[in-house]
């Protein structure tokens, strides 16, 4: 690559895109990489502020920004996504299906820490839809040493940094607890909320029972639902520390292994999650899920629908960003909640 005065560049090959920005109208390339500069192009180049241009000189030790962006794309690109074509040195990754985006945060940080290159992604752990842009990759200079990109590949390792895990078709059971609901003293306004949130992911609520605060009956209902083929079971109500709140005890008595009782998320601190021996989740949902627009349930449900195990470490990490601000206009997930 050689820097040349624009007035003298006719007949030479551009080695980068030339961008034109018209305020409030457009932003895009007026000339692409590989364009052979003609005499008539010189006034256009000068009009976009290019007193000098870089022309291509072959150097096998260096990589052009487009070629380097392809390497970064391949470092990132996991399942259920595809990469676009290079544009002004940048390549975007696009989701091929609805699912849970996962990002290897530590390896992403390691690659970005090398300098001279960048990978910008969405936050992992959230729902993406087919056609969504997941990430963009590019190098910072116009050309980069080939060995630097070899180092980037070595740093990233052999596993892609990103994956989209498709949501599964699941059957759910709901155990509604509380004597006030069981004896029809108040209407059940909790179960419809859970059904609606499950329906957003295509899950079917196949079993539903309403019980009083009887831990033995709740335990039997959970076990029965799993015996009947439910992929997951949700218990509503009875999740506080009051003596008559028996749902946590009932879940433990099923034999499921508890991941955590409590999560550093507001709303949702009294959340309980456990897994059966064959990996099916059973969750105790605190009362806030019934009335708050977004809670711990919205952060965890995509993982459950994608069959990605939720660990105690994952729940603990939700503390930073785990405070919902209850905005007057909710923009979740395009906000800081859970990030």
Automatic annotation (TrEMBL):
Catalytic activity line of the entry: adenylyl-molybdopterin + molybdate = Mo-molybdopterin + AMP + H(+)
Family the UniProt entry places it in: Belongs to the MoeA family.
Top-level taxonomy: Bacteria, Bacillati, Bacillota, Negativicutes, Veillonellales
EC number(s) stated in the UniProt entry for this protein: 2.10.1.1
Entry GO terms, CC: cytosol
Record-linked InterPro entries: MoaB/Mog-like_dom_sf (IPR036425), MoaB/Mog_dom (IPR001453), MoeA-like (IPR038987)
Function: Catalyzes the insertion of molybdate into adenylated molybdopterin with the concomitant release of AMP.
Pfam (any one): MoCF_biosynth
Name of this chain's protein: Molybdopterin molybdenumtransferase
Domain (MoaB/Mog): residue spans on this chain: 173-306
Cofactor names: Mg(2+)
GO molecular function term, any single one: molybdopterin molybdotransferase activity
Enzyme class: transferase
PANTHER family in the cross-refs: MOLYBDOPTERIN BIOSYNTHESIS PROTEIN, MOLYBDOPTERIN MOLYBDENUMTRANSFERASE
Keywords linked to the UniProt accession: Magnesium, Metal-binding, Molybdenum, Molybdenum cofactor biosynthesis, Transferase
Coiled-coil spans in chain: none
Pathway(s): Cofactor biosynthesis; molybdopterin biosynthesis
GO BP terms in the entry: Mo-molybdopterin cofactor biosynthetic process
